[in-house]
Give the backbone structure.
Amino acid sequence: MRSLRSFKLIAAGVLAMLVAPATAQQARPQAASSPRPVADARAALPGPQLTKADVDAWLDGYMPYALKRGDAAGAVVVVVKDGAILTQRGFGYADIDARKPVDPESTLFRQASVSKLFTWTAVMQMVEQGKIDLDRDVNAYLDFKIPLRDGKPITMRNLMTHTSGFDEVQRGIYSNDSRNIPPLGAFLKQSLPRRIFAPGTTPAYSNYATALAGYIVERVSGVPYDDYIERHIFAPAGMRWSTFRQPLPPRLQALMAKGYTLGSGKPNKFEMNHLVPAAGLTSSGADMGRFMIAHLDNGGALLKPATALQMHTSMLTVIPPLNRMALGFYEQNVNGREVLSHAGDTVVFHSQLWLFPNEKVGIYMSMNAAGTQGVSGVIRSQLLDSFADRYFPAEQHDATVDAATAREHARLMAGTYVKSRRLESSFLKVMELAGGQVKVGVDGKGALRPQAFPGLGGQARKWVEIAPFVWRDQDSKMRLAARVENGKVTRFSLDATPFMLFEPVAWYLSSAWLTPALLLSLGALLLTALSWPVSALVRRHYGAKLALTRTELKSYRLTRGFAALAVAVMLAWPVFITILLSDFSFLGGQLDWALILLQLLTPIAFLGLAFLTVWNLWLVWKGKRGRFSKVWSVVLLLSSIILLWVAVGFHLIGFGTSF
């Protein structure tokens, strides 16, 4: 049972990582370049002046307490204003055992997906030079072909807005050994994922898509990706303590912060990502401040003002009035202010930057520990909200929806949903049954209650409808909105995730009924398997014989033997997945032997059991067996069907080592 609990935790983590009426929305996302927008109308309030002294005092009151309470190791926070670093602060430790403090100028943090902003900036440099067309088929820039989906190609704009439609990729993207990292082009060719959405229709965050864009930069510039970034982004921006190279260059290795799951625990190994343009950056807080300054200065030394404006304001609207995707950045608007952002998370490093372009202000933070219950995400979100409330305060004025309409809209939302960013095509899809799907319910008062997206303290949020099919969390700024077509909810999303949305799950794959049905089926089959030796011992004790014909006895034994095999195989899958995802090194193929063995045993066990339970039911019902035996024969048949249903629907039956 411990492995099953671990499987559920890993599933949650992997599947992991959050005003116009929705009925009036268009069927497809809309992209447009526009003047700088605001999130929603609010009345500005007076607040403290944004000065170094005030920010330092505020940070001193927040960060040390947050790190200690969350059992985190260290952090860096940088605030920039009007083209200069206002303050840069280190908190906690870069190396706990050595008691080495975080130096905001030179301590290095892994940036994870914040790396993507450097790739997108490089892409816009190529656009500026006329070497890349945002709306041209990307196959024009590649030395391998990406098939069309629904007759449509992927464009660079699709890549930048995460609407390429790629399935998620896990195999081989992480490593603890640089010798296992193949050249970027080779890895992209061997790891091309399936397309699960038509291009331009559905935001589904994709590391592969960003790496593909980085490879295109490499090809059209004629310069290796690492070299290009160093020459055309790091050097002009004055970023001395930054690199995409893995392992780190010798001059930077001593500056690297150690990464921890918990501050009270042991340090983890250095995390390396094969999709370098998507997640390979290592940088210091001060260098990230210099990058923010360039973008806030209308592109600074990196982009022409018109190009920077295009990058920052070409918005993809999917579900109004929620935050939107720009070209690489995404909105995290707060207190009526436009905020452009990007976050990044490895297992142990957690980073995010926020740009207030109209105010010429930016804030960046990174942590080198996940902390208790993933508290790094909470610390980040609270940092932004508290910063905005202190220096850019505003009154929040929401409308309301009458109680009867609100209850009806909540009722329409009720159901089971799946994320657009998901592991759709491999056996890892089975993690949806362990928490990967989102259940949305209605409480006793008719209010919306999603069983996900917890609040600051881990409690359930209280969603209040403020416009037709638009809800706001009563205790925060978070909004949730849905698209409704023909009286049915077709998708919903949140302000926190412009790069991803949630769609209703097909009834035949819904964990709402499949998970309990699977557990009951496994229980019935386990009891059946255990009854074989138990009943044999009881008969031996009393000297009784099993009153069955030779054919019935054969069916009896085979059915129970295959019931045991099916239970063992079904339980082996979560054990295997838990081990597979517990260490980066296992994602490179070291456990392929176990995967192939399971792929061989699964159809044998499940198809064999289905055949045998049909045979058993026929023999039991035509013979002179009792009522219980007849009822149980039906239970066994239904249980075998459920196992086979799950195996087919979640790709446990299939061959291949791609995932």
Notes: The CA atoms of residues 299 and 525 lie 64 Å apart.
